[in-house]
Amino acid sequence: MMDDPSDAPLERNSRPDDETSLIDSTKDLAERLDRLWSDGPESKLSRYSAQGRVVAHYRIQDVLGSGGFGVVYLAEDLDSGGWAALKLPRPEVLLDPEKRKRFSSEATLASQLRHPGIVRVFETDLVSATPYIASEWCDGPNLGEWLAEWTAQSLGLPSWKSVAALVAEIADAIQYAHEQGISHRDLKPANILLTRREDDSSSGEDGLHLSCYKAQVADFGLAKMASSTWADTRSSLLVGTPLYMSPEQMSRQPSSVPRSIAASDIYSLGVILFELLTGHSPIRGETYFELLDNVQHQPRRRLNQFRSDTPKAMEAICSRCLEKNPEGRYSNMGALASDLRNCFQGKPLAPMRRRLLARFRHWCSRPKRMVSAGWFALWGQVLLGVWMLLATSFMSSYGVASARESSGMLVQAAIVSLFLNLPTGWAGWKTLQGSRLAAWIGAFLGTFNLAVVLWGMLVSPILFQDLYTGHNSFFSLNTHMMLTIVLGAQAFLFWCAVMSAEATKRAISQ
Q1: What is the rounded distance in angstroms from the CA atom of residue 300 to the CA atom of residue 371?
Q2: What is the DSSP annotation of 379-447?
Q3: What is the mean pLDDT of each run of 10 residues along the chain (510 residues)?
Q4: Domains of the chain, with CATH numbers?
Q5: Which residues neighbour 53 within 8 Å (Cβ) at sequence distance 6 or greater?
Q6: Nearest alpha-carbon partner for 169 in 214, 210, 115
C-alpha cells in the first residue's frame, strides 16, 4: 500500500484513442512532475524514521535531511562519544542495483576528499546489510535554510561583500575536488552547510550575517570522475536539481564530458551567487518543463533588476558564470574565487585569457545575439518598406520620376516586400522566440539581400532600374550605401544568431 498518491506509477495509455487523451496524459505528467519538484523531501521523512536504531557503532538520534538516494541522520558515535552525520540509503536504493551503485560511488569519491571546505567522511561500509556513510556533522543550517531564515526576518538583501567572501570559499573547496578529477554536479544551497566560525561571538540578529559562518560542501551523491558521462539514462532522465542545472546537464542522451569538468559546477555556483545577491533565481520558470526550457534558451535576469549597490564587476562575474556556452565561463573555480576576492577588495577582475578571434566568436555566439538579430530584422523591414513607398511617392510628386516610372517602382516595391521583407520579418520574429531554423533562414535571406544591393551598386541594378536611368548618380550611390550598411548589419546579426543557436545546441548535446 502506497503512502502518497504521488508515488503511484503514472498511468500509461499504450494506444491513446485520440489527441485529447494524449494531451490529458501529458498534462497529468507535467502536474505530477511539478508536484514532485515542489514538494520538499522532508515531507516524506517520517516513513524512514529510525530514531534509536544502532547502525554499526552509531546510534541514530534525529533526522537532518534527505537527498535523492539517502536520508541523513544525526547519530551518536558510541565509541568516541562524538556526533556524526549518518547517511543511510533509501529502501528503494537498496533494491535497485543502479541506485545502490550510485550510493557506493558517492561513498568512494567523497572519502577521497580532504579539504576544510568539504564535509569530511569518517568511514563507510558498503558491504553490510545496511550500507552507510558516516561524515562530519555541521551544527549550523544549510545555505537554503539560512536564506529562508534571513528572508523571514525581513532583513533585506545580505551584504554583497559577505556573499562574495562566502562563495569564494565554496569555489576554493570545489576547485580542490576538481583537481582530484571529481566534479560535484549537484551544487545547490541544501548541499552547502554552514558552521559558525570559531572566533565568532555574535548572537541574535547579528548572528545571522554570512560573515559569521564558514561553508562546507556536502553530498557528492551525483559526483563523477572526469571519465564518466553526464547522463544516467537507465535510472533517471536528468541528473541534478533543475533550478541549479547548467544547460549541458539538460541533455537527454549520454555523451562525453565537456572539455572542462569545472564548467557545470561553475554554472551552478553562479546560480547560487545570483540567488544570494538578489533573493531570486537568474532564470524564470513557474513549472518544471518551463524551467528546463528557459535554462537552455532564455536570457537570464540581471543583477541591477533587483539591487543597485553591487559593483559592475559583480555583474561581470555572474555573467561569466552563467554563460550558456560552457566555453564562455571561467576556466576553473580558482579563477572564479580570485575574481570574487578582487571584486571584494576593489581590484580589477582578471582578463579573460582568450585570443582575439576566440573572443569575437564568443561575443557573436552569446544568447542575446538572437534577440538583437530578431529586433533589428523586424524594425529594419518595417523601415525599409516605409522608405521604399515614401521614396517612390516623393519622386513622383516632385517630378524626379514620371508617373509610369513611379507606378513601375511601386509594383517592384510590392514584390520586394512580399518576397523579401515579409519573410525576413517573419524570420526575425521567430528568431526572437529562439528558433534555430528561423535564424538560419534569416541569415540566408540577409546575405541574399546584401548580395543584390552590392551587385546593383558595383555591376548593374536588378530592381528599380528606372531609378538609375537618367537620374542623379550621387543619389543612387547614397541609396546603395545606406542599404549596404543596413542589410550588412542585418546579415551579420543573423549569422551571429546562428552561431548562438548552434553553440547552445552543442552545449545541450554535450
Answers
A1: 13
A2: HHHHHHHHHHHHHHHHHHHTTSS-HHHHHHHHHHHHHHIIIIIHHHHHHHHHHHTT-HHHHHHHHHHHH
A3: 39 44 52 49 49 88 78 90 88 74 74 87 82 86 88 85 94 92 86 81 56 86 49 38 78 44 89 93 80 78 88 92 85 93 88 61 68 81 74 64 65 70 83 84 86 76 58 62 81 84 62
A4: 47-137 (3.30.200.20), 139-353 (1.10.510.10), 368-509 (no CATH)
A5: 59, 60
A6: 214
